[in-house]
Amino acid sequence: MEKNTLLVLENFIGGKFVPCTAQIDSYDPSTGEVYCKVPDSGEEEVDAAVQAAKDAFPGWSARSPDQRAQVLNKLADLIEGHLEEFAQAESRDQGKTVTFARTVDIPRSAYNFRFFASSVLHHTTDCSQMDHMGCLNYTVRCPVGVAGLISPWNLPLYLLTWKIAPAIAAGNTVVAKPSEMSSVTAWMMCKLMHQAGVPSGVVNIVFGLGSRAGDALVGHPEVPLISFTGSTATARHITERSAPYCKKLSLELGGKNPALVFADADLDRCIETTVRSSFSNQGEICLCTSRIYVERSIYATFLEKFVAAARKWKTGVPSDPGNNNGALISKEHLEKVRSFVALAKSEGATVHCGEGINHPDLPNRNINGYFMAATVISGVADSSRVMQDEIFGPVTCVSPFDGEDEAVAKANGVRYGLAATVWSRDVGKVHRVARRLQTGLVWTNCWLVRDLNLPFGGMKNSGVGREGGRDSYHFFTEVKTITIKH
Ligand code: NAD
Known about the structure:
This protein is of the alpha/beta class. The protein is about 40% helix and about 20% strand. It has helices at about 45-60, 65-80, 85-95, 100-120, 155-170, 185-190, 195, 210-220, 230-240, 265-280, 295-310, 330-345, 385-390, 405-410, 425-435, 470-475, and strands at about 5-10, 10-15, 15-20, 25-30, 35-40, 125-130, 135-145, 145-150, 175, 205, 225-230, 250, 255-260, 290-295, 350-355, 375-380, 395-400, 415, 420-425, 440-445, 460, 465, 475-485. Strands 15-16-17-14-13-19-20 form a 7-stranded mixed β-sheet, with helices on both faces. Strands 10-9-8-11-12-22 form a 6-stranded mixed β-sheet, with helices on both faces. A 3-stranded mixed β-sheet has the order 1-5-4, covered by helices on one side. Bound molecules: nicotinamide-adenine-dinucleotide (NAD). Nicotinamide-adenine-dinucleotide binds near residues 179, 255 and 286.
């Protein structure tokens, strides 16, 4: 794209690109400049998309899983064929490094289609005999209809495809609304739909604000199901807004994920992984570690080594392969993340590196970008907002604990319950602790290792429902029990 030429996105409805009269500015987070215009869709656009999805449903749902799988696989091939273009665009739109987009976001987006293309071929339903009644019971699963999909800005195409793929594999048609802050790769994917053989109306994408386009989708009476990934605050609106319609909801929300480091942990491995789990993607992953509890006997050693490793985590221009982190999503978000560091300081905490200490080294053109270096804090009370609220940036807090019971109590002492990591060589201890943690995911001696067949999701304020091979299939289908008497 030429410098100063604005990229103008259009909605994708019924297989066609449709311009929108109103638009929203979208910023390049690495420069702070507007570079893209995103449709500011409302009820009218959402209505048109829902109608297109309704019209496409009978034909698409009547196809065999195998026929649908062929289309999903073709879409995966096409995304892979354009991997570099997608990676560059995701980095520019979101602020993340090109390396991260190239190795994580885009490969996983293609894999989401491939995974569900395969997974949908292998589900079976239940059957039970009641010989004494002369009855046989069995279940069937049917697609629900038009699925409403709403995704956040942190892993834009990755999380959007994680919803589109299982929804259409199961025979639904969809209306998706990506985040207004990171819409470009979704729009690029629309350009591949015809070539992949996705029939018109099966995938519709309406761009715009949550409060307008998102709200219209959630409140649409002909959308019986909403799959949402985003913040806990938005999930509350969505739950209230959809309640009168009794919609089926899947809510994947925020986290305040603890790492529990026991004295017998392999410290080198733990530190290498915990730096990654705290700061990857600028700390803008719902699964990022933000509270590190360390057994007191190794606390001082851990803190010293961890800070040294965090200082080596480089932040700077997203296109530079030498950088681990790029820019945060927006000016407002950067200010919010910074305000947590200021709050910690005002409460007497120690900031060891990052914000206010070591500044990213930036060329002139990036001086107004939203950069913040990896920040490590200690000495924060568990009751502080810094330890209770989701910060969603490159900030992590380190704190000591005494014994297994205290470690578990501290880990569980927040309203969130998404993920935790446990570091210990004692197999009995990790089983006990994992069992007691109130989180949907527990990683022991590792982080972010995912078998997509298994359930993903949070407890408490981190979500309702689970996603993954069988769980997504169950969410995107309705089950019916049929009894036959002979
Ligand atoms: P957000 O809740 O502000 O927005 C998410 C999406 O919802 C966006 O598309 C937005 O436009 C839309 N939206 C906003 N208000 C709406 C409304 N009233 N009605 C309908 N839609 C509305 O979240 P965000 O800031 O984009 O994303 C960051 C959050 O997402 C963090 O809390 C993070 O933890 C969470 N997240 C969770 C997971 C997970 O799998 N659990 C994964 C990634 C991100």
